[in-house]
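SEVERITY: medium
COMPONENT: batch folding queue
REPORTER: lab tech (J.R.)

DESCRIPTION
The queue accepted two submissions in a row. Attaching both inputs and their returned structure tokens so the on-call engineer can compare them side by side.

ATTACHMENT 1
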Amino acid sequence: MADVTNPRVRSAVSTVVPVLRQYANEVDASARFPVENLKALRETGLLGLLVPVAQGGLGADLADLVEVSQVLAAECLSTAMIWAMHCQQVDLVVRHAQPRLQKHLLPRIARGEVYLASVTTEPGKGGHLLTGDAPVQADGEWLRLDRQAPVVTGGTHSDGFLVTMRASPEAQPNELTLVYADREQLDPQVQGGWDALGMRGTASIRMRLTGSVPAWQIVGEPGGFRTVAIESLAPVGHIAWAACWLGAARGAFAALINLVRSPDRPGSIDVRSDLVTERLARIRVDLELVSGYLHSVRNEVLTHRRNGRTLDTPATQIHLNTLKVVAAERCFSAIDRLVQLAGLSLGYRRDSTIPLERCFRDLRSASLNYANDRLLTASGALAVLDRGVQLAGLPRLGSPD
């Protein structure tokens, strides 16, 4: 965590890492939510990483989110993704909620009292982010919700939900409103479990949420979820996911490197072999490419935010989509190569000294978590609009900047 300068963040992460390491295998084997890990995240203040200092949080930014995500993911990718997606929701509240909601919610998040879950999936549309079916019903100063969601990560343990709803019964499917609801304001019904190939600790269950919330708990403008998604939810999500996937693959690679450098290295891995060194090099290439692109796109988003510029441009949207696709593909490629290099006993067994098998299953989900195909289709359409071919980290062709 050389790039994390906040001593409170560094101390919190140092406290949490041993807990994640202790419970990672058990969480995966039993496909249970990592309650001990979430408790540690609450107690150390890491749930408030992105909450401003004025509201009691750690006051960190996306640079810290990227670094901390990698460290946590090297120990338990399920926990890292749970935490990163919570931070994604916190960013929405910090940047788009009304002052009354911020005052109500942000100090509680900073104290570790509120873990946030996202509700954007819906039957019939899957994970398509910018459309919806279930309408919010206005009843005076109250909003009534009745929402089915096939996937709610951490839904059984969340203290609050950010829910996309069609803005009204008359609204078009792309006119969405984002609503915050405390758990106590809802009747959260679990309608299905989570027994998956990988990411088994995320408890990404099917739920139905019904209840009423005051109208001041809208995040962003009524019907204006697209702006919230473009400026916060999508960029922070893609950046945080990529950091988590990179951290998991990087951690596995580091563990293997340390093993082959130790007296206990397996005889099947001969570092003097050209085949072995070539495979090590290709794994490193995958990690280097993801890291370089991740930090380039992270810096682009930070620069836009600091200068008050929108992220709603073809080039920036292409860069964010590309980051997610590249990270999903290259991190899985890296772990696939690691399993091949480590062999049957070290790379494929569940009781191996290095959890390559668990990491392989976890990273297989990366291309499915908001499907790469959908993002590539969107980027192809956006490419026609970006006549300057503004590549990440570079100015437009012909630009003097």
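ATTACHMENT 2
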Amino acid sequence: MDLTTRKRIFIIFIVIMLVIITLATSFYVLAVLSENKDRDVQFGVTFSKKFAQQLKLDWKEVYTAMLDELDVKYIRIPTYWEDIEPQKDSYFYDDIDWQINEAAKRDAKVILVLGRRQPRWPECHEPKWVEFETIEENRTSILENIAHVVDRYKNNPTIEIWQVENEPFLDFFGECPKMTKDELQEEIDLVRSLDDREILITDSGELSTWYPTSKMGDLFGTTLYRITWNKYIGYFEYFFMPASFYRVKAYILGRSTDTSFVAELQAEPWFPSGPLNMAIEDHYKTMNSDQLIKNAEYAKRVGFDRAYFWGVEWWYWLMKVHEDDSVWRASKIYFQ
């Protein structure tokens, strides 16, 4: 490579870097200067029977307390495949039915999550029998499962929104096969063919560009985390990120605040080794009553239509097992 060619490559590299820096700086300045709407956000919760059981709680007791003591009116409920179809073509809906019926009694509205990838680790919750299927057979089983769930609940007015998969393209997190855009679109089209309710698609707020997920559903939902942990750097706080970052990001992708949710608002600790394997002091490093309020107020400044807290089961566990009701009480103001 001669000197002239090396100079050209160097100049091109510098130009590309300057463009990237300019775009990143412009985005950040726009986010910082963006109007602070602080709108009247509607708060809800994600409820996981599986996580309540992991905490060794009576999951029905937690769910009822959530409805009656906190007066929650918006609930996101997973339909774990391994629970509702433990054997091929043999369905068990009793626990989902119970949750939906109890919500209906109190005029609460439900987002029902469909598909293989669902909220809570390990993200994919497949029954054991799928291990013996080919890739093609497994794909057919997923679609049949989605259709079966929609058919069961499509006439139930308590179901307000269908969520198709959970953070479908975040394949580096969780124990899940990689999902393609065509596969997700196939599932969305299937749900649309069966019912006309709005469809929610979710993505990571901090680890994704939101493309193409923000374009694929009627509604878009982001995660929102303020303090995280990983094995390389330990605890990490997103102190540098203004709340309007999420709103500007949505605007650039053509998504309005009225059709955007915070689908997973951090309101429980980050559990590097599982909730029951950590000292209670370590729980408080990433979540406590003050941090919950900070996160909720931050979510209000984001300005999306709704925000669903992540961690109601932990609030109850903290109150019942450790006699600390501070987080439970702090959350009440956001539902009443």
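NOTES FROM REPORTER
DSSP finds 13 helices and ten strands in the chain.
No errors were logged for either attachment.
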